[in-house]
């Protein structure tokens, strides 16, 4: 049994959930509010961040570490559909794009929008909660436009973002965008190629559990679960 400590709108957790879905693994999900700083969770991951995967007696913290662990333990079983290429040169581009979305996109878009529009509403004043800073929201909404254009540039020249087949790069990008799509802040009119690429990933069976995610008092955008958006 695989257990995953996650949060429904943590894009790094969503990346791992997509990975698990592609491997045909249905994890036991435990929702973790990292701002609560639970001692039991900090004992698993002193960094206090999600996701954390547990399998047997192994604690695997962090999306990138989990992705490598899953590839090393199960990647060969996917054959030509392996999500991290066999060729070390091809892996460079996959890892470069994973880093782009897991760090740059997250820092410039996802983290700001999720913190301001979601996380702060569930935090107490002492924890830093309160209303959203709309200036931060406006900057994040502006930043996502050039990220979409970059995705469109890649998708318009390759079959998938990093090359001929779907990889960690596609799942990392889709995980980040799915959170913003939940909030209704993706300007899909910005780039048609990016929209078509996302529709391909969104239609995969591994995405179904993400499309069913809901948060108390916060409904997803109307197009969030629509495969023909």
Protein described:
- This protein is 52% helix and 7% strand.
- It has 229 residues and is an alpha+beta fold.
- The chain has 2 domains: 2-81, 3-Layer(aba) Sandwich (Glutaredoxin), CATH 3.40.30.10; 88-211, Glutathione S-transferase Yfyf (Class Pi), Chain A, domain 2.
- Strands 2-1-3-4 form a 4-stranded mixed β-sheet, with helices on one face.
- Strand 3 and strand 4 form a beta hairpin.
- Helix 1 (11-22) crosses helix 6, helix 4 (88-122) runs antiparallel to helix 5 (134-155) and helix 4 (88-122) runs parallel beside helix 6.
- The termini are far apart.
- One of its GO terms (biological process) is glutathione metabolic process.
- InterPro entries: Glutathione-S-Trfase_C-like (IPR010987), Glutathione-S-Trfase_C_sf (IPR036282), Glutathione_S-Trfase (IPR040079), Glutathione_S-Trfase_N (IPR004045), GST_C (IPR004046), Thioredoxin-like_sf (IPR036249).
- It comes from Beijerinckia indica subsp. indica (strain ATCC 9039 / DSM 1715 / NCIMB 8712).
- Homodimer.
Topology of this structure?
Elements: E1 2-6, H1 11-22, E2 28-31, H2 39-44, E3 52-55, E4 58-61, H3 63-74, H4 88-122, H5 134-155, H6 168-183, H7 192-202, H8 208-211
Parallel strand pairs: 1-2
Antiparallel strand pairs: 1-3, 3-4
Low-confidence stretches are none
The helicity comes to 40-55%
CATH topology of the largest domain: Glutathione S-transferase Yfyf (Class Pi), Chain A, domain 2
Order of helices and strands: EHEHEEHHHHHH
Gyration radius (Cα, Å) is: 17 Å
Please identify the structural class as seen in this structure: alpha+beta
Q: Quick one: CATH class of the largest domain?
A: Mainly Alpha
Distance between the termini: 35 Å
Which percent band covers the strand fraction? Answer: 5-15%
**Overall tally of structural domains:** 2
Shape: globular
Number of helices: 8
Largest sheet, in brief, is:
4 strands, mixed
- Overall mean pLDDT score? 96
Instruction: Please state how the strands of the largest beta sheet are arranged side by side.
Output: 2-1-3-4
CATH architecture of the largest domain: Up-down Bundle
Number of strands: 4
